[in-house]
Amino acid sequence: MKEITDKYELNAIIVKDKPGPINKLTSTNYPDKVKFECGCGETHRVNDSSLKIFAIALVVKFYFVCKNDYVTLVKVSGFFSQKATTIATFKKKLFKEYFESLGLDVGDRL
Asked: Is 110 a domain residue?
């Protein structure tokens, strides 16, 4: 798991895994065993209802926001047996500051 601590590193992640809008096909309907490591130090289930999905990215990647103010980019892979892999994690504050520096308001999406 890579924790991102500055806007330049965050920019590289966002360019590579461009956040897209959540749509009607966005689903976290995975078994309870599909979990990921978060920057907050906890392991979360992908289907945890306390997580917010800020955005999605191709292919089957989620930007999750946890209650401990971390954003984690997670890739879910597998067809018959799924697993979640943390690509990067960063503090929600850094994520929000990044978008604000671009003149974008994320509002209550975080």
From this structure: no
